[in-house]
Amino acid sequence: MTDESIAAAADAIGRGELVVYPTETVYGLGADALDEEAIERVFEAKRRARDKPVSLAVPDVDAALEYVRATDREERFMCEFLPGPVTVLCEKREEVPDALTGGRSRVGIRVPDHEVALALLGETAPVTATSANVSGRPSATRVADLDDEIRDAAAVVVDGGETGGTGSTVVNVADGSIVREGPNADDVRAWLGSE
């Protein structure tokens, strides 16, 4: 991983292209999360159903609040668990396209706890946060594991070494539910029960 590869990835995202980037969980497929054509490319590359939402990644909680209307409780949760392997569902603002959320009113917010991902997000954000794999296939934890279709679709692949290997825990703080269990799920459950 080099500063050049991060700059190249940021430039590609700015042009509406796809990139692969590492996170602390699995490799992600990144595109401009506010560009409907770029979002469509993500769905095409993953062969993902359009009604299945894609999350967005930002460099910190303050940046997240530019794209969502978070309640006080949701903001406290984000400050507790982000950056980290957790995706928080919050009410989206108007600038977040329905194409990203499958028409839903909530969008997943991700702040990866990974130096390379944060460096990329510092250059360009928000970026789509979805696993860099064809839907139904295993997530990639190394660049060597990437599906050929994903590698071919990406303008830039940023190699950050091996990742943690388990998708993020997805949390709906509003109703206190864990939508998908992953890392830190026990801590998340404890927090939801105590707040």
Instruction: Using the CA coordinates, give the radius of gyration.
Output: 15 Å
Number of helices: 8
Percent helix: 25-40%
What is the approximate shape? Answer: globular
CATH architecture: Alpha-Beta Complex
State mean pLDDT (0 to 100 scale): 96
Contiguous low-pLDDT stretches (5 residues minimum) are none
Q: What's the helix-strand series? A: HEEHEHEHEHEHEHEEEH
Q: Which fold name fills CATH's third level, the topology?
A: DHBP synthase
Overview of the molecule:
- This protein is of the alpha/beta class.
- The protein has a single domain, classed as Alpha-Beta Complex (DHBP synthase).
- It contains 8 helices and 10 strands.
- β9 and β10 form a beta hairpin.
- α1 crosses α6.
- The termini are far apart.
In short:
The protein is of the alpha/beta class and 195 residues long. 34% of the residues lie in helices and 20% in strands. It has one domain: DHBP synthase, CATH 3.90.870.
What tags apply to this protein structure?
alpha/beta, 8 helices, 7-stranded mixed sheet, 3-stranded mixed sheet, globular, DHBP synthase, 195 residues
Write the layout of secondary structure elements.
Layout: H1 3-14, E1 18-21, E2 28-30, H2 36-46, E3 55-57, H3 61-64, E4 68-69, H4 72-81, E5 86-92, H5 98-101, E6 106-110, H6 115-123, E7 127-129, H7 148-153, E8 154-157, E9 169-172, E10 177-180, H8 185-194
Parallel strand pairs: 1-8, 3-6, 5-9
Antiparallel strand pairs: 1-2, 3-7, 4-5, 5-6, 9-10
Helix pairs in contact: 1-6
